[in-house]
Amino acid sequence: MNQSYWAIINHFDIALINNELPFGTAEEIGTSGRKSVKIGEYKGFPLNLVQATESDLSRWTFVFLRTQIARSLEEALTMHRAVALNHFLETHQFCGKCGTKNVLSEKEIAMICPSCNQHFYPVLSPSIIVAMRRGKQILLANHQRHKGSIYTTLAGFIEAGETAEQAVEREVFEESGLKIKNIRYFGSQPWSFPNSLMLGFLADYESGEIRLQEEEICDARWFDADKPLPELPPEGTIALQLIEETLKICQSETT
Fold first, then answer.
1. Which listed CATH number (3.40.50.720, 3.90.79.10, 2.60.130.10, 3.40.640.10) goes with 125-252?
2. Core-most of 27, 122, 153, 242, by most CB within 10 Å?
3. Does 5 belong to an annotated binding site?
4. Does the keyword Transmembrane helix belong to this entry (predicted)?
């Protein structure tokens, strides 16, 4: 009997035992006879994805994916992959072209329509997230979803026919009324809520006064890098990484 790691997923929640993904044979884990999908390897062993059942919910401790992002990179990315692929399988059960029930490919992670042979692959929705500075100040915003708590960077989805850099300029202007320059790529992070890939950028202020997009932003201000800051995003987020990098740049300014 082969041992594997098991990603047992309930929407955005993941089953853990002793703060780790369950490990063992299908019989030991209780997944024998159930539909599972091998989605890769984890710590040298196969990683199988299983959708949670009612019995799983009573047997395992489930945690929200967002609470696990400060884990090691391998662990965090593995969990994001499992949640995103589970969402894909849940939302692509029927062909979007002819309505026939899809079947899972035996060769790859894809859903196939047996009627019209349409193939469906996991979907990623690219988005941008950007930290911007003005001299020794950083712009931080309090979004409606974090009203009264976290101040973070600006972000938004990339639109069809738009480059990532154009999306950065557009989102910043729409949400804050500011124009920026010196846009440069910083890094990326999967954000499986449900299927985003965030592309992180740094940028410098060019012109304008803050004008809020009130349906999205409660407050946005310039904060001095060398003075106390409001509550920031949690460890493990690319938002915090962008803020920390921008603060370093601000503090290196001599004027």
1. 3.90.79.10
2. 153
3. no
4. no
